User: Fold these one by one.
Assistant:
Number 1:
Amino acid sequence: MTNPPGVDLDRVLVPIDGSDGASAALDHAISIAAATDAEILLLAVVDPYGLSTVTERKEVEAELEDLVTDAAARVQDAGVDVSTAVEAGFPHEEILHVVEDHAVDLIAMGTHGRRGLGRFVLGSVAEKVVRLSPVPVLTVRTEATGQRPYRDIVIPTDGSDAAAPAERWGVDLAEEFGAELHALSVVPEGPVRSSETVDAYEEMARAALDRVAARGASFAVDVSETIEYGVPHRVIVDRCKDTDADLVVLGTHGRTGVERFVLGSVAEKVVRLSETPVLVVPSE
């Protein structure tokens, strides 16, 4: 199989800490890498700042080496190329360094990590990575819903230029996996100034959905289109539940047109609340 059109995916980074969340993220990474002929890079990070003795550090390093070795065997058994690394430092900083140094195209990680020997390897780290990563980040909860290969993908969009990369990823992954795409645009409810009319929001929402549908049609992807009203992150999470979505793809920065923030911080709230795996795509 070839890379999805418009998505250049050669290397997927998966931080490993032995938690169920990291294991679930690895399962998703394997599915994506197998479909796109990408390599998986497994990374374990020793956080020495919470370790009081050299002996503790050596114990942690040995434990993480074993975890990486076991994870690499899982990847190899799936027929996917794999490489490994164990680094020391603040976890989110090391993850981002590896992204830059190893030309990583996608990060897949758990949203809840592991406490042990005084360290917290993943968890809140995921939110920092989502906020700072220059490449898309797939976050997966331990109890994540959905199935693989993906069959239903939700794309929330506000039609802004910042949302376009997420739209491309969503459509192209849907094409790769033969999934149905559910395009969603949310009209925020609440007080609006005279220049911020509901009609204006609905017009933007319709244009946003038309853009996704047009790209979907060019790749023979089935696209359903929905405009809903409410608090954006809550509507997105509910829509994923209603469609039994396997994946939700959204941008990190959205429209401030007519001075309302539709996406952006919404992405972090969705990552925090969604039981559906979330692929967050930076605007650049």
Note: The chain has a mean pLDDT of 86.
Number 2:
Amino acid sequence: MRHFKPATKNPFHHPGVFQPARKFEPRFLGVLCQLLIVFLIFNSFSCAVNPVTQKRELMLLSRADELALGQQTDTEVTSTYGLYPDSALNQYVSTIGKKLAGVSHQPDLEFHFQVLDSPVVNAFAVPGGYVYLTRGILAYLNDEAELAGVMGHEIGHVTARHSAQLYSKAQVAQIGLVVGAAVSKTFRKFAGLAEAGLSVLFLSFSREHERQADDLGVLYASKAGYEGSRMSNMFLTLQKLNPKSGNDGLPTWLSTHPDPPDRIAAIKKAAADWQAANPGAKLAVNRDNYLQHLDGLNFGEDPRQGYVKDNVFYHPQMTFQFPVPTNWKVNNTASQVQMISATEDAAIILTFAQGQTPDQAAQDFVTKNKLNVISSDSRTINGFLTRRLQFSLQTEEANVAGLAHFIQKDNRVLMFLGYTDSAKFNSYAQIFSRTLGGFQLLTDQARINVGPEKIKIIKAPRTDTLANILKPYNYDEARQKQLAILNALELTDRVQAGTLLKIVAK
């Protein structure tokens, strides 16, 4: 739980607008109804003019709708993933972002730029002008122009209304927008791991959208006074890095931004074309200035916010621990810890509960979700006052059964919840009981006194290969290769004396 913020939504909440349409019988009636819905949609919304292309296109989201969706998503994004607590870095990123937004196709739109406290390498934007960069992607960028290109790309998705277009097409087709994270589609429908706004983050843009956003990224960066071709360096880094989704459930850049063929060449050509059309333009790179802003940036996972070691989850800041089932995937977010079974048909969630006492929290949970209570009792587990609850729930998609512990921890109540399909509950009951019942106080100082690795900026002491410059730090081979990628270099590359470089240290 990163900073362990209360969740904005109940784990069983299901935004109705994202539920798939019910089937109608007889069969032809369902087809007629769907055609009627499409007809009403097309006749209820006028075509909108795209700010970038100036072409008219079907758009189910009005400007006001886009702003509302952006505000909703922003609340969920910041609550779920957490903001990186460095005001100077956030201000630096925001200043560059606003400079880019000012030369975009929607300079009157109020853009918001924020750095997320996630090691996942990603940047993304949602309708309404909300743009996010993870500290993970900032670590792998190497100059201000590269940052401007990536941010300009995301601003381009907003100004060209790409997410809004995908949202509209999905609604017309009656496709549910669900998080493509760690759970199977069938299980996700009742697992409650996706919220309406967050689902926008997991839409995969088309190659056409990506090419247009690349062109806009080059355009905006160049107009703002940066070397537009530098954005291509990020794609070279990603090719070497090949990042996978992190353990906080956030997708990576490549999972939501398909890589069109010849992308790097196209970016360089677009930048060269702009420079040819604007001879004499002063274009900055600002490498040293950018790197200096990264000094002290947390790198990788921050164990203070929770980590797994030998199948045990430890939370140093909140001083608790519990066992993790073998081979289960762990997503540690700012609002909850999610554990997903290897077969993606069961989940365990730890989060804050509503209510001042375990009894109040349990009753609130039962009432809001209209649960069928099978058994309920109060007990003390490992020194914590706990309300234990076994329940079942019938939904349109499935019958759910689960076990919940409402645990008094200091002045808050935690809900520890395990659930699966009713038919599989008996096979998971022992796992649920062992995990939930294993919640206990963390007292081991060796597990508490941990901290994240950080990026340190050094100067090359002499002209030499990167490998030789790194030798005094006694990094193993894997870390040396990682640092080469981090600096967009090869270990055999010669580095000039005085060049700023990124290393990683405690």
Note: The mean pLDDT is 83.
Number 3:
Amino acid sequence: MSTAPEVTASPTARTAATSIAAIRPGRIVAIDALRGFDMFWLAGGQQIVRALPAGEPGGWVGVLQGQFEHATWAGFTFYDLIFPLFLFLIGCSIPFALRRRRERSESNASIYRHIALRVALMVVIGMTINGNLLTFDRSKFQLSYSVLQMLAYGYAVAAILYLNFSLRIRLWWCALSLVLYWALETFVPVPGHEIGVYAAGRNFGDWFNAIVLGDLRGPWQIGWIVEGALAHSATAMLGVFAGEMLQAESTPARRLRWFAILGLGGLLAGWLWSLQYPIVKTRWTSSYVLFAGGWSFLLLALFYWATDLRGWRRWAFPFVVIGSNSIVAYVIACHFMPSFQHVSNRLLGGLGRHLDAFGPVLVAMGSAVVVWVFLYWLYRTKVFVRL
């Protein structure tokens, strides 16, 4: 979904690049690989986990499957990380993509047209997923909350900030946006409700959405207008900061150290804040931004250490294939996964019937492979859908 960054690789990464000829030595493999790791769980991985036999109550399978359900309100699971990690990686690519455009001497007007077109395409595709756009029925049309709409929202704000303001100002903006969002949710009274009550329909963001959109909200009663402008864009800005660190003239070890420090710091700050302001994915609370951002930095550190510092790239190649066409992987996960599951069932369903409770696991694994083979075909034919 985001533009693939290219910078000069470290000597270690250049030496190891020959292990996978398809990956150019100048790429920061960690970003493509981590993006693919993130999308894998939507386009095959979660289906495999959910198909596992339940086993004993309280057993490891149940615990694992619980990590692939969103927290009902306050709390945090692995599944709650997929969305913010994707947005973090979009932000991570902004410095690379916009720097290349400026190096080509593109005008500001041309760059802003590119940003506007990218945002529009993400919003439209998002509306096909959650907004009933493909019904072509105006009575069913909804300006509903969509992952792609929120990605577009966060990307637009972060890109404009990156183009127009210094690092110091952007750091201040990111911090103040989280504080402002917390203050609005905590101290601004909502008609008919007490202040400082963090519950669905009782906070400022939900009330503001209802005032502005009314029935166009559809089933998604989420305060995404304020949430997107402040919290989602802050998540994207965390990614921008990571991208700038990857661009900066520094040693790989120093970058890795900073990723680890920021990751652990984000986890600690998010947890401490959650003691008063809960971690809530469905409202993208400021504590959630920091907690998810902490995990995003730590995962980037892990992938960067393994692929770009140590040069261990063969294991990452399947994720690179997915990450190179992440928008296609996401659309497949949202629109076409049943079709790929049908293909897998036709190929493996007969064998699966002889595996009893593990038959659905085989079919789910088969559908993940079918999706990957399709994405690999796009990769080999150099077809990359990037907005």
Note: The chain is about 65% helix and 0% strand.
Number 4:
Amino acid sequence: MFKYGIDKLSVTKVMAIADGSLVAVLTDEAKIKVNACRKKVEIMAGSTKAVYGINTGFGPLCDVQISSDETSKLQENLLITHAVGVGDPIDKKLSKMMMITKVHALCQGFSGIRLEVIERILFFIENELLPVVPEQGSVGASGDLAPLSHLFLPLLGEGEFWKNDEIVSAKEILAEHNLQVVKLQAKEGLALINGTQFIVSHAINGLHKMKYLLDLADLAGAMSIEGYKGSASPFKKELHTIRPYKGTLKVAKRMRMLFKGSENIMSHEDCERVQDPYSMRCIPQVHGASRNAYYHLKELTEIEMNSVTDNPIVLSDTVAISGGNFHAQPLAMALDYGALASSELGNISDRRSFLLLEGKYGLPRLLTASGGLNSGYMIPQYTTAALVTENKSLCFPPSADSIPTSLGQEDHVSMGSISGRKFNQILGNLEKILAIELMYAAQAIEFRRPHTLSDIVEENFSIIRKKVDKLEEDRILKDDINAMIQLVIDRRFRVK
């Protein structure tokens, strides 16, 4: 059981809450924190002293004081006017993760929102009432204003929900569940839409995917080396302890595990070849560097998901600090790093696929024994080349850019939402690139029989062969490629 506002979230826990395998609850301890902070806001809202976002306008209108009679309208207008997102809707699971991480932030007792608003969001989460959120429109400061506005418009009876795969009006769904609209009060609109939950949810989703793909890249590399009759020497422990990057050590250890007991590797230990090309020999260094980026992004993401990122932050009956906890630069830069790291996994994978086609060391050219009439596996590498170049083009860091907004009040923004979206787009392409390398590697291994491989590699070879037969003569490869991609997406490979 996870306790909102009390326990610490992690990537694994957010994914588990989202898929229903971990129950998350609102405890009395969290309720006390929320109610205590709300009382502080009510004191400030009744004061004649201007407090940003509580009794003033927003952004460049922060110098306009709002009467207590207009407070509710001010907060509702905030959501309505900021819901200006465009583009396709984000995946439903991302909408759910946004609500989960927002509830956790609100329950820490610094946002000043009423308990009943949090409870309504929890009702949405627990009953799979997932708002429709457009993917474009956030500049990553003041947090994710547009996406979060769309996420919480349904509280007001506005906006839209998903109903299965259909988009329906919030009014219709609220009526089905006999729910009244929520009338927002002082500070609540601001607490809902100031924050980085769109960005952090993209980071969580990407990290969950990247962790598996890092392991899968090691497997693909090992299978390619087996097919190429490459050397296992570059993975010896002694080599890497004298340059002990965490990611490198991890990958080298995994490669040794993937080669353990391989008859094929042992069969050519004393051959005359001096060294393999970099894309095989330098797997620990390259894959390891990508793992280091993963570790860094995971560390920062887990700090962010357990932080308070709205504005102002309520500290006492008289103090509400208008700061910049909503600014997503810490995550934006790390997401750009993660995007580069993921792109590089695809880059080196494509090079290994290319090597398997060259016809060296006992492999036939294009991995077909009857070349000429048959093109064999010539063309799928065109696809990996295209995907690799697409990923390279996506590596420009949005966090290096900033366009002033809000009449210059918000004069430096993170663009972290774009970083998060591109990170996930690159990972989607990486799934396809690794799928094709694994298909190539399995074909190459066919030419190394009757030598056997490690138990784990043999198991994965069998997984491939249950979906994709050995290529004897030319056939339509699209079905094979799609089957391989689905194996990757469904996490069918044993990577540990």
Note: The radius of gyration is 26 Å.
